[in-house]
Write a structure and sequence with these properties.
By secondary structure, the protein is of the alpha+beta class. It has three domains: about 5-80, Elongation Factor Tu (Ef-tu), domain 3 (Beta Barrel); about 85-230, Threonyl-trna Synthetase, Chain A, domain 2 (Threonyl-tRNA Synthetase, Chain A, domain 2); about 280-390, Diaminopimelate Epimerase, Chain A, domain 1, CATH 3.10.310. Helices cover about 35% and strands about 30% of the residues. It has eight helices and 22 strands. The strands form five sheets. Strands 6-5-9-2-3-8-7 form a seven-stranded antiparallel β-sheet. The chain has a six-stranded mixed β-sheet with strand order 17-18-19-20-22-21, with helices on both faces. A four-stranded antiparallel β-sheet has the order 10-11-16-15. Helix 2 crosses helix 3. It is elongated and about 90 Å long. The mean pLDDT is about 95.
């Protein structure tokens, strides 16, 4: 088995080892400092003999280092770990232990899953709702544990020794059980990498929560990520103060004022658009045509959405309920059409379905109103309208 150097010294970022096995795209070493993906923690990155290590996995008891080019068995290689990524993972994982223990300590909320992402870290708790007051108290306790500079210990135990420790949950393995311990605060079976002292986590900041069915997902960051979050938010606030022409303390008021103004403008624009559509509907009513014993208002309109076609059609029928309305438009490379009536006997759903194959389209509706859309490359707007009219004959 490969000697796991990351358990002996999580701060070690260079090592030498011998290639024990060489597959098509991976190698197995006599010893390694590369941490493989597992327990919610991503794998380490770095190089082996100058080659980028693209992935590290533990499969069937062997740690596989994936490379673009193979390295022969027996070769002595040099491994270099991305130390910034390693230390970031150490901070985030230890921070997760501290935060999880704080939720248990204060409220008995248990963590059921953990994910260490590239930007944020999440834990899922077995509780439906968490109040802002609870989050604040938990964050305060977690940072208190950091400020107290508590030692983070690791210890290997047997299955028989498990009962001697107040573990948060039963270990997932039965042999070679590794404990990560913050004395008198947290005892947990874990295979991840951690710093030696809680002070190295530096800080924990809870960013927010999200409901996940009957669970709550808590988003947070630790250590250097806290500083990055603060920097990003400060940059955003600085930009907003300029855009909204308001000091930081008045940004919320300025933003609400802008939002309300935008809502007013949207309502005014909608009213103006409907006025234009009413005029378009009245103009189209001046050109009613007859096909057989059916009276039809037909038109190919320019750059109209399906919703806009439906609005114009509705205005037409509000002024004359005895016509059939057939409107077609091409917009953004797609054909859209609406078929609608009030008092005539035409089944508009059947009419729409009859032309959909010609445009490789989809549509729906009922006997009085139907609509659809499809590819403009298969047929022109005028040809599609002609097909609809032909179905009325």
């Amino acid at each position: 088995m490969t000697k796991k150097l990351y358990y002996e010294n999580a701060y070690q970022t260079t090592f030498e080892a011998t290639v024990m096995k060489s597959g098509d795209d991976y190698i197995v070493l006599s010893e390694t400092a590369f941490y493989p993906t597992g327990g919610g923690q991503p794998h380490d990155k770095g190089t082996i003999n100058g080659q980028e290590v693209t992935n590290v996995e533990e499969i069937d008891g062997e740690i596989r280092h994936y490379l673009n080019d193979s390295i022969p068995i027996g070769t002595i290689v040099e491994g270099i770990i991305d130390k910034d990524r390693r230390f970031d993972h150490m901070q985030q994982h230890a921070g997760q232990h501290i935060l999880t223990a704080a939720f248990v300590e204060l409220y008995g909320y248990e963590t059921i899953s953990f994910h260490l992402g590239t930007q944020i870290v999440t834990i899922d708790l077995n509780v439906e709702n968490i109040s802002p007051v609870e989050l604040e108290r938990v964050e305060k306790l977690a940072n208190q544990m950091i400020q107290e500079q508590r030692e983070i210990q690791t210890k290997w135990i047997t299955k028989e020794e498990v009962s001697q420790y107040p573990l948060r949950k039963d270990p997932s393995v039965e042999d070679h059980i590794r404990l990560v311990i913050i004395p008198e605060f947290d005892y947990n079976a874990c295979g991840g990498t951690h710093p030696r002292n809680t002070s190295e986590v530096q800080a924990i900041s809870i960013l927010g929560t999200e409901r996940q069915k009957k669970k709550t997902r808590v988003e947070f960051v630790c250590g250097n990520r806290v500083r990055k979050q603060l920097h990003d938010k400060t940059t955003t606030v600085t930009k907003l103060t300029g855009l909204l022409n308001a000091p930081q303390g008045e940004l919320e008021t300025a933003a609400n004022r802008l939002i309300n103004r935008n809502k007013t403008l949207e309502k005014e624009l909608k009213m103006l658009q409907e006025t234009v559509f009413r005029f378009e509907a009245m103009d189209l009513l001046k050109e009613i045509t007859s096909i057989g014993n059916q009276r039809v208002v037909q038109a190919v309109l320019i750059d109209k959405s399906l919703q806009e076609l439906q609005t114009i059609s509705r205005f037409i029928l509000a002024n004359n309920s005895e016509v059939n309305v057939l409107l077609v438009s091409e917009i953004n490379g797609k054909l859209q059409f609406v078929c609608q009536r009030e008092q005539t006997p035409i089944n508009m759903k059947n009419l729409a379905q009859s032309v959909l194959p010609a445009i490789n389209g989809k549509g729906g509706g009922n006997e009085k109103q139907a609509q659809g859309g499809g590819e403009a490359k298969t047929i022109t707007s005028d040809a599609l309208l002609t097909m609809l009219l032909h179905q009325l004959m």
